[in-house]
Write a structure and sequence with these properties.
By secondary structure, the chain is mainly α. It has a domain of 112 residues: Cytochrome Bc1 Complex, Chain D, domain 2 (Orthogonal Bundle). 36% of the residues lie in helices and 2% in strands. It is built from 9 helices and 2 strands, in the order H-H-E-E-H-H-H-H-H-H-H. Strand 1 and strand 2 form a beta hairpin. Helix 3 packs across helix 8. The chain binds heme C. Heme C binds next to helix 4, helix 7 and helix 8.
Length: 237
Amino acid sequence: MVRYFLLLLIILSVLVIGMAGLRDYSFLPHRTSRPPIEIFPDMVRQDKVKAQAPSSFFADGRGARAPIPGTVPIGYHSPGTPDSAVMGGTYDVVLFSGNADYANTGKLGTNWGNGLPFAATPATLQRGQERYQIQCAVCHGATGAGNGIATKYGLVGVANLNQQRLRDMSDGEIYNTIVNGKNTMLGYGANIQAPDRWAIVAYIRALQRSQYATIADVPADQRALLTGTNPTTLIKP
Ligand code: HEC
């Protein structure tokens, strides 16, 4: 009894392996071009999109997807293209005696440089404010005081961007901090493109200036507003 069972098992094994296990029958004298019988789907056929292959999954029939408008794929570099309003349309024309490196590194030769590598416009500051509020304010706070919401949940040691040391710091070094981080702050270079980094630097300068502003910085015709009891009248006169 056991003997028949073993025999049957061996015959079955050979059959199953012969049919399911081998992909092609090239060892047979008569080769066949027919696809092999697949009892279990072979691994070469999988439910996935191969590069550049069509796909019926998407309405346009293409497997490869175009980037979603307004997004930047990680690792993708498109110098000078985003939002020309940020750069006054002049990002490609680097103002510093043609030193294109400065725009990307913040360095002039071996030293940190100062100044934006393109002409700043009001749109630059607006863009910088928006990007700052998205990328930096969670930690550094809306005014740069280092009191963002993350500090209420236990993050310690966030720098106050208005301190004298950072007011004195060159633009290039701040730019580099955005790209590569510093000490316990991680770098944000992968999330923020070069023109936007410069726009953030410009906005930080505006924040720093605002924290040390005197009455002389307020346009003469608006000084009267400062005497009002409601400071919000300053924001929307
Ligand atoms: C997740 C929290 C976090 C975010 C987001 C963040 N920072 Fe920081 N940042 C820190 C911390 C923490 C430090 C202090 C690092 C240290 O010196 O240990 C710091 C320090 C700095 C410094 C001072 C570096 C120095 O030399 O002392 C600058 C400038 C700065 N951040 C700019 C930015 C800008 C600009 C952004 C937005 C692009 C940003 N940070 C986003 C946490 C953050």
